Amino acid sequence: MGRTLTYPKRTSNTVNRYNHRATYDLGAIHSIVNASQVLHVSFNPGPEDPFPTILPMIGQMGSFDYPSATIEEPLECYLHGYVSSRIMNLARKSEGDGLPICVATSKVDGLVLSLTPNSHSYNYRSAVLHGYATLVTDEQEKLWAMKLVTNSVLEDRWDHSRVPPDKAEMSSTVILKVKIVDGSGKIRDGSVSDERKDKDNREVTGRVWTGVVPVWETFGKPIPSAENEVQEVPEYINSFIASKNTQNQALAEGAVKVQLPPEEQS
To answer: What is the mean pLDDT of the segment spanning 49-71?
Structure first.
């Protein structure tokens, strides 16, 4: 059995609240990031602005230097953006290791409905990464990252579109490469977890329904654009939709069946 690679525990990434739900496994954390269509990227805009900035961005974990690396191995986070955006300008001007940023995401898998409002919860998967962002300047790596991000939106879409990008498109698009220094994940699954005083109260248990409403992301039927000239929806799109819908439903429903440890509270 191979060893499990983990991120080091540091002050910035150690989970304190409900730490039994925490994971530092690279595979688990990278999988949550790659399953998310939107990542929330935060950074310090500078001394003139007291508020941290948070941007929704598209990104994906991967390794250009080691393309055969699996999800369980060390990877970089590649973020896609516009050439003149503030985060790109800050990364361009940054010195040393790069621009310090935080990447966060979460997926809700179920509504956990308990006997009391205080015990209600979600089944969820969340991940947070800390790292240093620099601009990708090598053209081959930039193309590789653009393909990686495009295919994360819809599998095989890059090869089924007009590629490679032209000079103007390459100039207007910037890829940030984030070298990760630490990360953590947090996962809640299972069913309800009520306190004994409520479970023993027949007046409450006799009138309050408890359980989990599974939640999963659903991809709908493709709607062609007004300019579309292809009569049938390509099979690779239909296959992607069917596969993702099946996977997402199975994950959400499967999460409910996980047994919670006796000590866990919602």
So the answer is: 96
